[in-house]
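I am still learning, so can you show me any protein sequence you like together with the matching structure tokens, please?
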Amino acid sequence: MTRRQYFSVILILGTLTTISPFSIDMYLPGFPAIAKSLHTTIDQVQLSLTAYLIGISFGQLIYGPLLDRYGRKLPLYAGLVLYLLASIGCATTTSIETLILMRLLQALGGCVGLVAAQALVRDLFPVSQIAQVFSLLTLVVAVSPMIAPTVGGYATVALGWHSIFLILAAITALILIAIYFVLPDGKKPDPSLSLRPRAVMGSFLTVLKQPQFLTYTLVGGIATSAPFAYISGSPDVFMTLYRVTEQQYGWVFAFLAIALIAPTQLNHSLLKRFRSEQIIQATLIYQSVVGLLMVWGTWAGWFGVYGLIAMLFLFLSGQGLTGPNASALSLAPFTRHAGSAAALMGSFRMGFGAVVSASVSLFHNHTALPMVGMMMVCVVSGLAIFLLGQRVIHYRNKKAGRQESLSEVAL
């Protein structure tokens, strides 16, 4: 693969993974306008975000087997077309119930980008480069929160909140064109893989029986759900509690996105000196300490708007390290079932994200505590699972080593 091809592939895979972040982040500044237009409350509008996360979670389980059976591109086309049509449906809705339904359909279509991108990374790059490639994709994804809310804020003011979904539809059309003309096919269709429920469940069970996959998927899924608490709660916290405008909220969101970008580049350098496991452990310890301080300070009333932004910046700076390394360690053991593994990994992450998002709405009390509290719970839980999973993996590897030694003696 030439340098130009490498850049093109990374860019397209990055845009595929940004479909969902854009779909989530871009309409956040429009929450108050949507609530007013549809004669509902911001809490109800937040449910459209939860619906989107639920759709992503379940949709990825569908696309995983399809990507393994029919190759990467055919399911990609089908999913992105569904996303495009649902985006138009979101733009033309006149009720909150229809918006929630359209967001669910939008997620069911758009989530194919997440699964396909991760599976294609496993197809197109050697195992030794996977963590670095995921870091580059995370960099592309990290830029989207800098752009999306700002564009969404100005689009809401200038053209109305409906325009946000028309912009998303136009972006998806451009991605479809790039996939058709530039993106390599990746893994070829495998007719031997059955799509019968029993066979699909068998593939998923094969993946789940791998301790390394289960450990790092749970760690990555729970720890990287923390930003969903921030995404779900921040519109109400900043625009209602601290009275910032839609445009100002977009700039706050863009500033905090910087916390996600720098660590992705740092990860690239750290991988030359440390193992992914070491980076994950150090990051989760750091985030747990920052999270506890953030919760305590919020409860004690130490933070104004600038203090809260500073603490969020410190906390979110760890996300760019945990996610890529957990993804690389989760997918490393697989070749034939890479699509199913990517689907399960993505489903777990978005499923946890949906639960976290709904929890912030459920515990809403007109303070920032539900948001920062859920963020802290995510990383502390991720650290606990990491430490336990490391012991299980070590025990399994040690047991396997003893069995191999006994086999050699027998021979």
User: Anything to note?
Assistant: The chain has one domain: 3-184+199-402. The radius of gyration is 21 Å.
